[in-house]
Amino acid sequence: MIAEKMKPLMANNSAIRTMFEEGDKMRAEHGAENVYDFSLGNPDAPVPSEIKQAIIDILNEEDPVTLHGYMSNAGFEDVRESIAQSLNRRFGTSFGSGNILMTVGAASGLNVALKTILNPGEEVIIFAPYFLEYNWYVDNYDGKVVQAPTDKNTFYPDLESFEKLITDKTRVVLLNTPNNPTGVIYKEDTIKKIAEILERKQKELGRTIFIISDEPYRELAYGGIEVPYVTKYYNNTIVAYSYSKSLSLPGERIGYLVIPSELEDSEFVFDTASNANRIIGCVNAPSLQQKVIGRCVDVQVDLDYYDRNRTSLYEGLKACGFDCVKPEGAFYMFLKSPVEDENDFCAAAKKYNILMVPGTAFACPGYVRLAYCVSHETIVNSMDGFRNLAKEYGLL
Amino acid sequence: MIAEKMKPLMANNSAIRTMFEEGDKMRAEHGAENVYDFSLGNPDAPVPSEIKQAIIDILNEEDPVTLHGYMSNAGFEDVRESIAQSLNRRFGTSFGSGNILMTVGAASGLNVALKTILNPGEEVIIFAPYFLEYNWYVDNYDGKVVQAPTDKNTFYPDLESFEKLITDKTRVVLLNTPNNPTGVIYKEDTIKKIAEILERKQKELGRTIFIISDEPYRELAYGGIEVPYVTKYYNNTIVAYSYSKSLSLPGERIGYLVIPSELEDSEFVFDTASNANRIIGCVNAPSLQQKVIGRCVDVQVDLDYYDRNRTSLYEGLKACGFDCVKPEGAFYMFLKSPVEDENDFCAAAKKYNILMVPGTAFACPGYVRLAYCVSHETIVNSMDGFRNLAKEYGLL
């Protein structure tokens, strides 16, 4: 009954479902407070109070037919200008409304970008480990994902291998920093080197290669670490952004693409992307939420909410003897499994009501992902279980 | 710079842009009140006051992290149940929450449905005239649109020709009633006959053929005319719905799919469609608007707003001697061009500041579409121009 292309996806889906069902079963059996579920990347920091106030103000001040109505497929002009100015203030860029295209979250933004530029058979290079849903998006346009390696001690890109993977089929390099699942942030030096390689390869191959920078975690960077703004280093960069994490609004599906003026044929690419937004069926980003963003463009969730979890979980796990790169951003930690098959490790953790996602789900076996967007109590209370788990593997 | 597939679409887009720019130029030159723009299908009936109140109540009553957060890709369970019950009350169906999948408007719903069931090379039959953006959606999945004829005196399907077009490549019949651009509503008799043909063809060809019923105009039916609920007549029907027109919320991108239990493998198809919602990048329908719908499930715009326009425009045009099927639903009128090339007719109308869309844009040359979702004043004031136009063609 379903399309052939959906069949393998649905088979994979039933594995994920089994994991969720196990979690629900555990919660029913032991009580939700006794289950330490680190499997879900679901933002849970409080929604800033400015959001509610902005919605009420908008409802009181704006004409309803315009507020809830169609606008340009790229979004409300005033909102796009506010976002551009905020980026310029914060990152020293020089965007205008004509560089900002409002999208139904970053996932849809990535689809708009790929629909706009990717041809069947062309390659998208992604550094592993990575969020595997990227595979779906690339497959939507019949492209091919090429995995590039990272250094397992740092999760930084292995640039020598990367350069060798660039061919006359390469169309996009998809970056994600701060990274899901490792929490690693690429510093300026790395971005510069990637840009240098791509500039050289563009000339050598005589073709345009884009960076798509997926940045839903941009604001979740701890200890004042800077997240370089990629468009400043490489002209043919498209940024995909979402307010899901910075404002805890993942259900609202609101984000944007940045298509900088420095990108080749920028205006035409922007127009094409606006049409792609329509063609893939989104038409435009939800209108009320666009207006909310226009008024809350510099608001963000309390970073300390996640940072406290990061510190407690990292220090707790290190004290147990586990091996992990300390995350600098996002709300994930990527732990080395003490045994080769991380599925065994995940299974052992379940005995202590601890749920983690196997690294295989991020194209990186031998590791597990812990999402620390949970209550601080969950982390504190999980530590007995982690200590027992560490003892099992002779780490304590 | 852009994907090959986007190139013809962008060429077509520049023609539409030219039309809009002409309209803007006219408005700047003659004043907006002196331009009679019937080219845009942009709902303009007042948004019901219940919407604002529902948003405020929701903000005051619900937990923000849950309200703006992720939910199942199919949408909030309680909202889906409310919609199911409303449909059951109004149309005598027997849906539950498990049959309703919340989507980013109907355009996205159609994409979710096609992603779920359509394979490359398979055919989608659509009765012409029709909304040409359907072509894009079918092309997104590498399907092929097959145009089926209608009777030009009634715009009802020519069922004999339709039956002959069904082959071993047919996967979907896409219906749109009330219809854009004709305003025609298919009565029970027509739906029954289409269902009979499809039942017979499914057996004969040994394959599943779906109806996708695109129903954003369902509630815009005038004079108490009934719009048959297609799932009651044919099991393998998927309904795509949007609140864009019934609540004047087109910018909010909120709608749903109905996947009835009678559809073959219904639960699996529903699960697959929920995943398709994620895979195409929407993830879920905007969360706050879902909750708004949950509370406003039986609310609708004032039908008289459009009905008054319908009557005035139809009677005015008939009095001028123009030829037109009286629309029973939606907010469009499909006028026969008094000359073969309707582009000449559109160009002549511009002299009187009247803007209409050539029928070629709906796969039906020789006609023009007038969208009467405009102020009543616009219609009244346009009549002098229409009379002059009629005189030019010897109709008055």
Automatic annotation (TrEMBL), chains A, B:
SUPFAM superfamilies tied to this protein: PLP-dependent transferases
UniProt domain Aminotransferase class I/classII large: residue ranges: 34-379
Coiled-coil annotated spans: none
Signal peptide boundaries: none
UniProt keyword annotation of Manganese present: no
Database matches in Pfam families: Aminotran_1_2
GO molecular function, one term: pyridoxal phosphate binding
PANTHER family xref list: ASPARTATE AMINOTRANSFERASE YHDR-RELATED (PTHR42691:SF1)
Enzyme Commission number(s) of this protein: 2.6.1.-
Cofactor(s) this protein requires: pyridoxal 5'-phosphate
Family to which this protein belongs: Belongs to the class-I pyridoxal-phosphate-dependent aminotransferase family.
Keyword Magnesium: no
Name under which the protein is recorded: Aminotransferase
Entry keywords, A to Z: Aminotransferase, Transferase
NCBIfam families assigned: PRK06836.1 (NF005305)
The species this protein was found in: Lentihominibacter hominis
InterPro entries in the record: Aminotransferase_I/II_large (IPR004839), NHTrfase_class1_PyrdxlP-BS (IPR004838), PyrdxlP-dep_Trfase (IPR015424), PyrdxlP-dep_Trfase_major (IPR015421), PyrdxlP-dep_Trfase_small (IPR015422)
